[in-house]
Amino acid sequence: MNNKPTVLRDRLIEFTLDVLGFIKSLPKSVENDVFSKQIIRSASSIGANYSEAMFGHSRIEFIHSINISRKEASETIYWLEVIKKANPKFDKDADLLLEEATSLLKIFVSSVKTAKSGLSK
User: Of all residues in the chain, what percent are helix, strand and coil, respectively (each to 5)?
Assistant: First the structure.
């Protein structure tokens, strides 16, 4: 049995929890409250859509859900960059999350390419 889906799923859960921990460490402000709500949605949606993709009934469903994970990873990167600029004292923590989000984005981009190439065969 291939355990890559489980490893990636666990990684996505950890990422979501890391984002939540990061958000909790930020100073309370109206701006950070707005940013926090946005990034929590996008970061948690990455894993939720990946989980959905694993149980898609077709390759098309898989591609659709993985594409949503890709978009949510990209949005999470955006919010991390905004939060980083608004909270320069948290650069190092934001950079670690940006590195992971970028790595996840690359995985999903590659997955979509691979899945689409299988459609034309």
Answer: 90, 0, 10
Place of tokens 């960059």: 81
Q: What is the pLDDT of residues 80-97, one digit of tens each?
A: 999 999 999 999 999 999
Cα separation of 98 and 81, whole Å?
Answer: 8
Domain 30-119 classification at class level: mainly alpha
Determine the 3-state secondary structure of 34 from DSSP: helix
In angstroms, what CA-CA distances link 34 with 12, 65, 86, 102?
Answer: 23, 26, 12, 22
pTM as predicted: 0.91
Give the start-to-end residue ranges of the domains of the chain: 30-119
